[in-house]
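To the wet lab folks,

You asked to see what we're planning to order before we commit. Fair enough. Below is the target structure as tokens, and below that is the sequence we designed to fit it. If anything looks off to you, flag it before the synthesis order goes out.
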């Protein structure tokens, strides 16, 4: 049988091969094989020999000048028949022109010799033998041509990597590859597939095989594509799956023929009835992966495949079902109804899933954002059982999917996944690392620092090759996890180098990560903000809010940029979601940037609309942040506060410590009244989240308690204050001073450990304390009647060193404290007296002037200590202001009871008597006897101790210095008296006995 030659130029040249050596040399010269080789023994070019002659086989053919010809000896069996004559010598006479151009026709191979082709092919031990076989053969059938790649592949595999490279780049190799690459369309479909598989496997063995193999793959793959388009029914389902598998696994094939996968998918859709359920699943899986890699869009054939697969899902195996879920989701044609069916089938199949199947299923659920609680619980259990077999890709995909679904698995699974991630930390690629960190941050799961450090070190050699988006995502993820790896400077440097390439999302993510870590050089932040300002019109509301929030937490304030952000948001304010509003308001509050009224009004109006929409979900964190921010900005919108109050009221039992502190502080600062029962609910919840309280939260809670005058149970308040000493080293002076001041306002005497912690903090961070902080701290000790032994020398040290510039408020508070505890000999007192005397009258506030005046009065009464010796003009001004501020005297229940008893005893008295010299008003005075009855009601005694406040004791000493006999009556003692007669006897006995001012020793004993 005569078949079309499959060898092209090679076989045409072989027809002219002559038996004599000179004729062969000319034939090989036409084949561009000018380098000699010895086929009698195995060629050194393929065995590693280093002789000069053999090494020439590895060189590309070049044109060599001169008449020298190379004689080639063949190791093939001797040919039978006559040798061909030299065409230049066989004609003695001139031939016609057209006849002279004809090539000589080779004699046909004998039938017996042709029949030896399979045997010689089977016996070929060297690539040279195969080449000799091809050269000797004149006519090969298509089936014989299809056998050549198989044999060549077997011989090719026997070579080392170095030898394969030498073979693939040699002219022999190109001659061998050419025959089946020139006209693959002449082969049958099965032979085309076999040839393509061999070529791909050869390319896999040595992907640097050269242009010859690449050209062969291109021609064969296009032939397969054409066959699929022309005669798709000639391909069996198994063969179609093999083609798709090759397309999915081979980059070279996808580049050689991008449309091959689509043609194969089309053929599969035409043969849907012949495909089994598992084959449908595999086709969907492979097609989706291939099309994702090729970025082919609009693949309508997947729609029919997904419909058919969803109907056959109950018949699929566990692995096939997960593969189909992956492919269907990736195609974009999966409808919610289909997903419900697949999820119901998957619940039954999960126990049979291995690690790869679980990975496919998690990817599908995460990409589709399909939350099925029963299925997720089953997956959790199976993941835990399969954890020893999970690799980096499985772990990262699972964590990523849980994050996408906002589903936090049970803690044992998360810990086990973290352990497996630690074991596989060296296998995480950039993509898998991003998935892992993103999932942890979204789930608010904080893995061990050692694991995060291992992942960061794995990324060290990859940082310089990352693009701007990848760098920003890693900075964002590490910032969200509150971990700064040791190589973070590499990421920061990469961000600095690529800042000019970053878009809006990259900038917002980088800034957010830096802000979470409180990290970033001034130059980097400045570069990012400058870049953001140039492309601000490309920012969406979320990116704008993130930028403002990050600037605030990094302490980078630029009025122009903030105004531009607010103005940009005004044009798209309706697109802001709840988190955007909270981030923007908190940024403005932290930076103390008050936008124009129109901008703030627009934001408030949009926030009210979001709160009024019952279908808009709000997170407690956002509501708490908005409440706190409004208080910081002093924007009291009653309608907005009512809506926030209605939203948070039902969620108080599940609030965090941060939510409680932000909300009650915001409501208190804005003067929004909270009912006592609501405050009681807040305090009840607070005792369950004590471990979450930090010093800032504590200061907020204490300040709000004092502002609302809401006093919880003493045990709870002591438990709340007990959280301060362990965290005192990380507390800011303002937070410590606010907490101490609130204790004084609440008249709650803390335990000794808390007072000691307050003094320790002031001693350790004395240089960071401002005048306001020192004043609040001194006032609290004064009100609690607790002597600050260590604060006096510390304060004096700060004043003398010049680090603290005292104002009149701090001077008056310190003088009052020193007078209360009779610390007249303290060096601080002498220094303050000199300072107070030198200050002008205009420097004093009315309250400071009155306190300084009263201390001066006590010092003059004692006579043995140095007085302030205020000028008469100061005293006159203090008395004038005191008279002007006096209003009507408000009687308490205790004062009214005492008046009734005095009336019954017929003792003359007066209420609210003004003592102009001491700038005081006496509750009840007996002018004739110069007796002052001090009604020690709730405001003049401590709440958790049977003792008067420091101010009450100070009043009594001033009255005593002015010649009054002070008779204090405690409401606690008065209420123990049951009858009116008992009250008469009690008061008569007090007035008959000489009474002195309550001393500190007596107060402590009581």
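Sequence we intend to order:
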């Amino acid at each position: 049988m005569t078949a079309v030659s499959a060898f092209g130029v090679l076989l045409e040249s072989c027809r002219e091969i002559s038996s004599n050596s000179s004729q062969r040399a000319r034939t090989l010269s036409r084949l561009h094989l000018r380098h000699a080789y010895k086929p009698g023994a195995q060629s050194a070019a393929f065995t590693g020999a280093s002789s000069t002659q053999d090494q020439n086989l590895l060189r590309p053919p070049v044109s060599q000048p001169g008449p020298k010809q190379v004689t080639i000896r063949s190791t093939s069996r001797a040919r039978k028949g006559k040798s061909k004559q030299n065409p230049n010598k066989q004609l003695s006479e001139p031939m016609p022109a057209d006849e002279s151009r004809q090539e000589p026709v080779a004699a046909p191979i004998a039938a017996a010799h042709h029949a030896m082709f399979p045997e010689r092919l089977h016996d070929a031990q060297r690539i040279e033998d195969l080449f000799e076989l091809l050269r000797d053969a004149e006519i090969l059938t298509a089936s014989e041509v299809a056998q050549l790649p198989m044999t060549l592949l077997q011989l090719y595999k026997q070579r080392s990597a170095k030898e394969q490279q030498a073979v693939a780049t040699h002219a022999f190799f190109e001659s061998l590859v050419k025959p089946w690459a020139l006209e693959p369309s002449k082969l049958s479909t099965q032979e085309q597939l076999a040839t393509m598989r061999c070529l791909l496997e050869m390319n896999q063995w040595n992907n640097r095989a050269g242009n010859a193999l690449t050209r062969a793959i291109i021609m064969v793959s296009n032939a397969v594509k054409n066959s699929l388009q022309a005669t798709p029914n000639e391909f069996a389902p198994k063969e179609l799956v093999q083609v798709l598998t090759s397309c999915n696994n081979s980059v070279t094939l996808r580049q050689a023929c991008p449309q091959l996968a689509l043609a194969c998918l089309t053929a599969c859709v035409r043969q849907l009835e012949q495909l089994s359920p598992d084959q449908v699943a595999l086709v969907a899986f492979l097609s989706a992966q291939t099309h994702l890699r090729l970025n082919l869009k609009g693949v309508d054939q997947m729609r029919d495949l997904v419909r058919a697969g969803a109907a056959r899902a109950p018949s699929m195996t566990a692995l096939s079902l997960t593969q189909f879920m992956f492919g269907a989701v990736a195609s974009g044609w999966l409808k919610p109804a289909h997903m419900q069916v697949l999820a119901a089938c998957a619940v039954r199949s999960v126990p049979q899933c291995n690690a790869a199947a679980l990975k496919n299923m998690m990817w599908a659920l995460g990409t589709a954002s399909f939350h099925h609680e029963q299925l997720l619980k089953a997956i959790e259990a199976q993941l835990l059982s399969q954890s020893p077999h999970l690799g980096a890709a499985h772990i990262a995909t699972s964590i990523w999917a849980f994050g996408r679904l906002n589903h936090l698995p049970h803690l044992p699974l998360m810990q086990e996944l973290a352990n497996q991630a630690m074991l596989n930390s060296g296998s995480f690629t950039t993509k898998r690392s991003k998935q892992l960190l993103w999932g942890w941050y979204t789930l608010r799961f904080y893995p061990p620092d050692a694991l995060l450090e291992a992942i960061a070190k794995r990324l060290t050699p990859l940082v310089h090759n990352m693009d701007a988006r990848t760098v920003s995502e890693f900075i964002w993820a590490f910032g969200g996890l509150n971990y700064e790896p040791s190589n973070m400077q590499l990421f920061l440097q990469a961000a600095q180098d690529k800042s000019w390439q970053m878009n809006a999302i990259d900038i917002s993510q980088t800034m957010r990560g830096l802000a979470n870590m409180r990290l970033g050089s001034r130059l980097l932040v400045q570069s990012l903000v400058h870049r953001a300002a140039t492309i601000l019109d490309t920012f969406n509301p979320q990116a704008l809010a993130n930028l403002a929030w990050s600037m605030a937490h990094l302490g980078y304030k630029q009025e122009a940029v903030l105004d531009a952000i607010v103005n940009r948001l005004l044009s798209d304010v309706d697109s802001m979601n709840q988190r955007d509003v909270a981030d923007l308001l908190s940024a403005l509050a932290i930076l103390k940037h008050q936008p124009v009224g129109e901008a703030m009004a627009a934001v408030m109006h949009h926030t009210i609309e979001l709160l009024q929409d019952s279908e808009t979900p709000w997170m407690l964190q956002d509501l708490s942040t908005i409440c706190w921010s409004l208080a910081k900005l002093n924007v009291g919108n009653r309608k907005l506060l009512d809506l926030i109050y209605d939203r948070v009221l039902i969620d108080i039992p599940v609030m965090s410590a941060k939510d409680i502190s932000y909300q009650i502080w915001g409501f208190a600062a804005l003067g929004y009244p909270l009912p006592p029962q609501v405050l009681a609910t807040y305090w009840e919840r607070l005792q369950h989240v004590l471990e979450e309280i930090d010093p800032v939260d504590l200061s907020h809670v204490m300040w709000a308690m004092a502002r609302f005058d809401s006093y919880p149970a003493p045990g709870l308040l002591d438990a709340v204050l007990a959280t301060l000493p362990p965290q005192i080293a990380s507390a800011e002076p303002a937070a410590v001073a606010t907490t101490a001041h609130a204790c004084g306002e609440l008249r709650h005497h803390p335990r000794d450990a808390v007072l000691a912690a307050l003094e320790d903090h002031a001693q350790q961070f004395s240089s960071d304390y401002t005048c306001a902080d020192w004043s609040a701290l001194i006032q609290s000790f004064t009100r609690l009647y607790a002597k600050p032994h260590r604060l006096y020398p510390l304060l004096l040290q700060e004043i003398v060193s010049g680090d603290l510039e005292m104002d009149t408020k701090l001077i008056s508070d310190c003088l009052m404290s020193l007078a209360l505890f009779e610390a007249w000999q303290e060096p601080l007192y002498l220094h303050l007296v000199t300072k107070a005397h030198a200050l002008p009258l205009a420097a004093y506030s009315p309250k400071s002037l009155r306190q300084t005046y009263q201390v001066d009065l006590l010092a003059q009464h004692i006579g043995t200590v140095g007085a302030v010796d205020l000028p008469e003009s100061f005293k006159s001004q203090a008395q004038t202001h005191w008279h002007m501020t006096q209003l009507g005297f408000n009687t308490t229940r205790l004062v009214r009871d005492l008046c009734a008893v005095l009336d019954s005893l017929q003792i003359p008295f007066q209420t609210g008597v003004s003592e102009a010299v001491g700038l005081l008003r006496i509750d009840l005075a007996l002018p004739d006897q110069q007796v002052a009855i001090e009604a020690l009601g709730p405001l003049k005694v401590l709440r958790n101790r049977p003792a008067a406040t420091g101010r009450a004791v100070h009043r009594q000493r001033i009255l005593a210095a002015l010649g009054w006999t002070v008779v204090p009556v405690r409401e606690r003692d008065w209420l123990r008296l049951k009858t009116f007669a008992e009250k008469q006897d009690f008061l008569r006995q007090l007035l008959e006995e000489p009474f002195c001012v309550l001393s500190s020793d007596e107060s402590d004993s009581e």
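Structural context that might help your review: Strands lie at 910-915, 920-926, 931-936, 965-970. The radius of gyration is 46 Å.

Thanks,
Computational group
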